[in-house]
Amino acid sequence: MLTDVADAGSRAVSLAFPKQRYRLHAMVTSAGYDQRRHDPHRPYDWNGLRRGDAPFVLLQHTLSGRGRLRHGRSMHEVLPGQTMLLSFPHDHRYWLAPGDGWEFFWICLNGSEVLRLWRQLLEAGPLVRLGAAGIDRMAAYCRAVLDGEVTSPARSSQMAYSIAMHLADELLAWGEVRTSSKRPAAIERAVSLVHGAAGAPVDVGRMAEASGYSRYHFSRLFSAVEGVPPARYRLRVRMEEAARRLQTEPDPIKIIAQRCGFADANYFTKLFRRYYGMTPRDFRRSGMFAGSLSTQGVR
Question: What pTM was computed for the model?
Fold first, then answer.
């Protein structure tokens, strides 16, 4: 797919649709492919504070050569395989230095949902490395714009959400637990303790004791193996146990809370709402979570 973008040649396409009666909160506004050499008569030099006041974001992936980036007070070389994520207006500058060449494709997006998510993506840094599948997908989106396949605001919005969600899935820490690699025996003992006592007050200290390590070393090892800190893992197990019981048991919420290790029902409700975005009562009554609950690979 990367060669398909390059085969299109240096060009750009903008998607400027008339204002619609239906408000859309994520839109692709333009995309392109370019291969530049430093030219003092036609410099490639963009300042993030000199592109107007309208907010938007940029994804730019380097195929070959290199660019330069100043992001705030940090200086970077933008090398092949790196994807640059920027928002505008912002104090940054990216440019092509004398003697350098830079081959890249780019996509610009705007909309409140894109801007909101981009603020979180930038926590991973203005320069990231996506997996091969992710890069191919971004290149495919770029090529679709260049080929004139985005013909309506709805399609532009659908693509913008797809781009943003793919980046979020790859770059943000959602708290997924790794299941593809075999756990060390020490971590397996701690995990087994948690799952065997979802309703008991098992804290990180007891998990560390079960592992045989000091609390400090255990916490570092657990986070490295499982992808989340032990306290977060423990909370997730308890929340999923609570959700399962709310679906399958008719008992009052206070009783469900106690069975999941929460003596204070109000505190349980507060945590549950923070975790799932709704109260236990609404979770049970809404019916939107009917069916068996996916544990997303916790075990």
Answer: 0.65
